Fold Maleylpyruvate isomerase family mycothiol-dependent enzyme.
Amino acid sequence: MADIVLGTGRWSAAGLADEVANRRAAVRHATEVLVRSASGLDEISVRQPSLLPGWSRSHVLTHLARNADACCNLLLWARTGIEHPMYASRDDRDAAIEEGASRSHQLLMEDLIASSDRFAVAAGSMPDSDWTAEVSLSGGDVIPAVHVLRLRLLEVWVHLVDLDHDVDFTDIPTGDAEMVLEDVVQFFGGRPDVPALTLEVDFGDHRRGWDLRGTTSRPAAVSGEPGPMLGWLLGRTGPGELRGDAPELPEWL
C-alpha cells in the first residue's frame, strides 16, 4: 500500500493547536488498539495471510513500523527545513518490509512499539509553528506537516483491519472513520478510472455526503454506515451492507 494523505484545512493558531492535539490523541488511541491486537497473535498466526494480497500479517506489522519511521522523517523535514523523504526509494522500502517480515513475533512487536513511540515523541516535540511547514510525500503530493498525523491515523486503522484478526472497519471510532473516509474519497475524486458516485454516510448524529465526478455521465448513488462504506471503497469488503447500485471500483492503491 502506498502512503497517501489528503484533506485540506486553514487554521487560526488556536484552531491549529486543537487540530494537532485531537489528531495526536486519535493516533495514540489507534496505536494502542493496534498494539493490543497484534499482541494477540503468535508465531503461527503472524505468518498467516493478511487482507493484502501477497502479504502476511508480519508484512503488515513491519510496514506499519517502517511507516512510523517514514512519518518521523516528514516531521524532521518540517522542523528543520532540510529534505528528509519518507523512504530512500521504493525499492528500499519494499526490501525493508520483506526483511522485517521474517522476524519472530516478539521482534515484530518490539519494532512496532519502538517505532510508534518514536513517532509519538517526534510529534510531541514539534513547535507549533512548524506544523504548517510543507513536506512532500512519496508520490510527490505536498502537504502541511499537520496532515502527517492524518496520514499516520489512516495507515494505522486501515492496516489494523488488514491484519484480519480481531478489528474491522466498524470498530473505528466515528470521528476517525469520518476523517479516513474524507481522505479516501478525496483521493478517489482525483482519478479518471473512478466512476461518478454520490455517497451518503450516516454517522449517527449527522449525515455527510460526497460527490465523485468520474468518467460516467450519470452518478451512482450509494449510502450506508461508515464501516461498510470504508470497507467497500478500500476494496476490503463488498457492497452487501450498503444501499444503492454500487458500481465496481478500481483498486484504491
About this structure: The chain has seven helices and six strands. Residues 1-8 have pLDDT under 50 and may be disordered. The beta strands are 134-136, 142-144, 197-202, 207-212, 220-224, 243-244.
